[in-house]
Amino acid sequence: MFTPTNDNRSIRDQVYEALKQQIVTLKILPGTSLSENEMAVQFNVSRTPIRESFVRLAQEGLVQVLPQRGTLVSLIDRSLVEEARFMRLQLECAIVEIACSDFPAASLSYLTMNLSQQKECLELNDVDRIFTLDQQFHSILFAGVNKTHTWNTMSSLTIHLDRSRKLRLLDNDDWEQIYDQHCQILEAIKNKDADFAIQIMKQHLNRGVDELTVLNEKYPNYFI
């Protein structure tokens, strides 16, 4: 159930962000047909913010507006998944290298709290929450070295990768290993061990390279 918040965001922005989150986290599956009327009822809003959200999502490649077929959630583009993985690998290895040289104590505390929450989610098997915490862990790394704008820009270009990651983790639950790698990255930063931090980050971000082919074979209707 969609409940508008009392922050400064407009209803239009809140509906857009809620829809985007549902698509990225596979609450709405690739290839799903979207109806303005049905979405308006679901969100208890007029059709206008739904229509405007569809336009923004289409610009980001998350939905397609097709003649005679209406609006469909875009399939996961494997070429964009691989390109996004390459981009993240280059940027995040550079980020942890900088972090091992200079990283604020406050940011270390944020990472520690984030990992504590991840551990709790593992025990509760809360996949949705730990997926969010995983994203937050990496965003804290960027913020800690004053590269928040870089994170925001990168995140806008890795949506297809995010969807494939969520599908892989729903299909094959390996959050424990992801959590362990996060812990190793934190320890490497504390120890100022850049070589080890880069090594673990490469392992972390190269996860699922081979599994993308497996997912494509298992869920052929979700990919292009």
How does the SSE layout of this entry go?
Layout: H1 11-24, E1 33-34, H2 36-43, H3 47-59, E2 63-66, E3 70-73, H4 78-101, H5 105-124, H6 127-144, H7 148-155, H8 159-171, H9 175-190, H10 194-205, H11 209-218
Antiparallel strand pairs: 1-3, 2-3
Helix pairs in contact: 1-3, 2-3, 4-6, 4-8, 4-9, 4-10, 5-6, 5-9, 9-10
Task: Describe the 3D structure.
By secondary structure, the chain is mostly helical. It has two domains: about 10-75, Arc Repressor Mutant, subunit A; about 80-220, Four Helix Bundle (Hemerythrin (Met), subunit A) (Up-down Bundle), CATH 1.20.120. The chain has helices spanning about 10-25, 35-45, 45-60, 80-100, 105-125, 125-145, 150-155, 160-170, 175-190, 195-205, 210-220, and strands at about 35, 65, 70-75. It has a three-stranded antiparallel sheet with strand order 1-3-2. A hairpin with a 3-residue loop joins strand 2 and strand 3. The longest helix has 24 residues, at about 80-100.
